[in-house]
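Lab notebook, bench 4. Still working through the backlog of constructs that have no structural model yet. Next entry is a single chain of 201 residues. Request: give me the structure tokens for it.
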Amino acid sequence: MLLIMKNALIIFVRIPELGKVKTRLAKDLGEEKALEVYKELLQHTHDISVDLECDKFVFYTDRIENDDIWENDLFSKYQQEGDSLGDRMMLAFHKLLQLNYKNVVIIGSDCPSLSPIIINEAFERLENDDIVIGPSSDGGYYLLGMSKLIPELFQHKKWSSDSVLADTIKDTVKLQKQYSFLTELSDIDTIEDYQKFYLSN
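Model written out:
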């Protein structure tokens, strides 16, 4: 009999390199400032996840970095696979669900208001709901969680657009899945996002 394991958190990251992160933000702030902002966001994501009572997995876009802020004894490390963002997320979910985790939640590294309380709430929701979504103010989502792989959620989406959340909800309704929302938060992708968050805090 397979052992039912605990919860797993997937964290999608990029290695912080000049000119390769926050490119939309860099158009207005410059590449060096955009890199600085991304490093701050990475550190925040690390700090809110490091003490969570779940297994934690960092998935890198380009290559695995063993000597960085993600401690090797606390975070398991993988490289993302697949062409589109949807493919990469689906394959990450598939990998961990195949390892027999009970509930799996994915987050990015762009959300400065994300907290341990919200992530823990996501895991709690999955005890009753098929899908949990953390909606972002730009029409996407900052968190997605499920206990069984639902491939349709990762297909036929225009990623990084304001239609992702609406299209995801349409899929859940069509598939007759039970879902719930977490608190709406904002990612930092553009100069408007940056000004709204950093100038008001």
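Notes after review: The chain has a mean pLDDT of 94. DSSP finds six helices and seven strands in the chain. Flag for follow-up if needed.
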